[in-house]
Amino acid sequence: MYTQLQQRDSDRPPVTLSTLSQMKQQGEKIACLTAYDASFAALLDASGVDLVLVGDSLGMVIQGHDTTVPVTMDHMVYHCAAVARGLSRPFLVADLPFMSYASPQLALSNSVRLMQEGGARMVKLESGQGQTETIAYLARHDIAVCAHLGLKPQSVHKTGGFRVQGREEQAARTMLESALALEAAGADLILLECIPASLGQRITEAVKVPVIGIGAGPSTDGQILVVYDMLGITLGRKPRFVRNFALETAVPQAAVERYVQAVKSGEYPAPEHCF
Length: 275
Ligand code: KIV
What we know:
Strand 3, helix 6 and strand 4 (122-126) form a beta-alpha-beta unit. The protein has an eight-stranded parallel beta barrel, surrounded by seven helices. By secondary structure, it is α/β, with parallel strands linked by helices. The radius of gyration is 17 Å and the shape is globular. It contains twelve helices and eight strands. It has helices at residues 4-7, 17-26, 38-46, 58-61, 73-86, 104-116, 132-140, 156-159, 169-185, 197-206, 227-230, 252-265; strands at 30-34, 51-54, 91-95, 122-126, 145-150, 189-193, 211-214, 222-225. It has one domain (15-273): Phosphoenolpyruvate-binding domains (TIM Barrel, Alpha-Beta Barrel). It binds 3-methyl-2-oxobutanoic acid (KIV). 3-methyl-2-oxobutanoic acid binds next to strand 6.
């Protein structure tokens, strides 16, 4: 059960925001994975994962859609509550799905659902400078927020597909400015998806809050992957940044432990996983 009060005195204290920022300061890499149910959550917890994300990627890997756009708040709350029941140590983050944060007030009421009904400790929203006001509003209400920059899967119909972002210098500079503006607005964590490794490094060095990368190179403070991708379960073509840890061992917990070790040691991501 995800009950921080019970865990406080144990030898596996729960990961908090202060733990994550201490890890950044001390240069200890943060190992993160997605989960969508209690069994996987318990397996990730037992394997030493620091942060678990209930991603709206569940629209693709659980529901079989082509994008994350069909995912609703009810879907997110259902899966988040299931994951929370399987966790004790990792920090639990949940995605605000498509259009659930179209105004600051809507973002707040939906964050409250993810926290009260789903047990999330933090909410994540796909961001740009357009979300500065929303992030400031959530921060003013003491909601812990992760700003997701780079490839934003909820916007693929507008941006033209799942593509690497920030390749040109102007786009890279805009992303760096957005990261700084969102941090100043109150973002506690930044997630960078599918950007050049050099830009991942620039942003990680520029902001004080921890930065988690997926396809953002080796310099971010932590790494995240969709759990089904790193276990080789997802069908079809995999993004370049995915490493299949199940090729090394058929035992799921051993594969996740190997992932945690590879992230912590800096062995993953290797140059072949970077842009
Ligand atoms: O929805 C998700 O799983 C995510 C990860 C890809 C970071 O946002």
